[in-house]
Specification:
The chain is built from 13 helices and 9 strands. It is an alpha/beta fold. Strand 2, helix 2 and strand 3 form a beta-alpha-beta unit. The radius of gyration is 20 Å and the shape is globular. It starts with a strand and ends in a 6-residue tail after the last helix.
């Protein structure tokens, strides 16, 4: 049986896809241990020409063609045809570290629901990198529940930092919400809450490209705010599944993530210039709920002074907080 299925949605990435595939197929791994599923999301460029060459050379590469339906549905459809015990969603403009597949395969026999890996953000315009770090609690524990990871001030997104057990996803009917930005927030929070056993690999296995143009994350607009509101509501609806002892932490984490993405949006000058009115309308609509939930989160036994300061600024002077953050993206 295949141990790992790597799902790669493809849309307008002819500039990047070869680096992604090369980083996978040049590793010293038995091809029977993993498969690569390319989901062609109706890409109109020459991305598939590159992919077809790899498909001829590597028999463990599969191609699923579909009409353009967006990233979420492409991932969902790729997971549906996966045959591996575990799945890993990789974006077509990113790449993985040398020998990372072997490192991941070593963990799969331990039957975790989720495995978190080290991720480096790589900024296309400057080639600078920043590492997404784990909390001290997570580093000190070989095994934990998803709740422990979720409520311990870890960086929750992107979804590419997790390897998921396929049976776990199917039993919990976990799918990416279609047609929205920031789907990672909604998906990762639910998955982590439901995961009974998880662990981390404290090694950078994945390089997450922060593109200056063309990528979804590079072009914030009014739809981002509407989708953030939708994500907020979806996570609120999920609260009927949350045990009472965890509810305040769930509400706090939900609010913190929404706030962090708002701050990241403010770091995009085009957003502030072109959509300032829409931003503040969205801000005012969620401010009471976010303030209330953030204060509740401060009761956590793993208190975080950074969150406390951010909460105070957000409540007392959001303009000052956004001005302070606008020079750098935090999402």
């Amino acid at each position: 049986m295949v141990k790992l299925s790597i799902i790669i949605p493809v849309y307008k990435v002819e500039k990047y896809i070869e680096k992604c595939l090369k980083s996978i197929f040049t590793q010293s791994v038995d091809c029977h241990n993993y498969e690569v599923i390319i989901v062609n999301d109706g890409t109109p460029d020459n991305s598939m020409n590159v992919i077809n060459k790899y498909a001829e050379a590597y028999k463990n590469l599969k191609i699923l063609n579909q009409l353009n339906q967006g990233l979420s549905i492409a991932r969902n459809n790729g997971i549906k045809i996966a045959t591996g015990r575990y799945v890993w969603c990789v974006d077509s403009d990113d790449w993985i570290d040398a020998d990372s597949i072997n490192v991941i395969l070593e963990k799969l026999d331990d039957d975790y629901d989720m495995i978190a890996i080290g991720v480096n953000n790589v900024f296309e315009d400057s080639f600078n990198q920043s590492c997404i770090r784990f909390s001290r609690y997570s580093l000190e524990n070989e095994e934990m529940s998803g709740k422990d990871f979720l409520f311990d001030n870890n960086r929750i997104t992107p979804t590419q930092k997790y390897i998921y057990k396929l049976q776990f996803l199917r039993e919990n009917k976990l799918e990416y919400f279609p047609g929205i930005f920031h789907e990672d927030i909604e998906y990762c929070m639910r998955a982590l809450y439901l995961a009974k056993r998880m662990t981390i690999i404290n090694k950078v296995c994945y390089y997450y490209l922060q593109r200056t143009s063309g990528a979804i994350s590079a072009s914030y607009g009014v739809k981002n705010f509407r989708d953030l509101s939708l994500v907020f509501n979806e996570l609120s609806n999920f609260e009927e599944n949350i045990d009472s002892q965890y509810l305040r932490y769930w509400k706090a984490e939900k609010s913190r993530l929404i706030l962090m993405f708002m701050l990241g949006a403010m770091g995009k000058s085009a957003l502030y210039k072109n959509n300032k009115k829409e931003f503040w309308i969205f801000f005012e609509s969620v401010k009471p709920m976010i303030c209330t939930n953030l204060w509740k989160g401060l009761l956590s036994k793993r208190f975080n002074i950074h969150n406390f300061i951010m909460c105070c600024l957000y409540y007392l002077s959001p303009q000052l907080l956004f001005k302070h953050i606008s020079a750098k993206s935090v999402c």
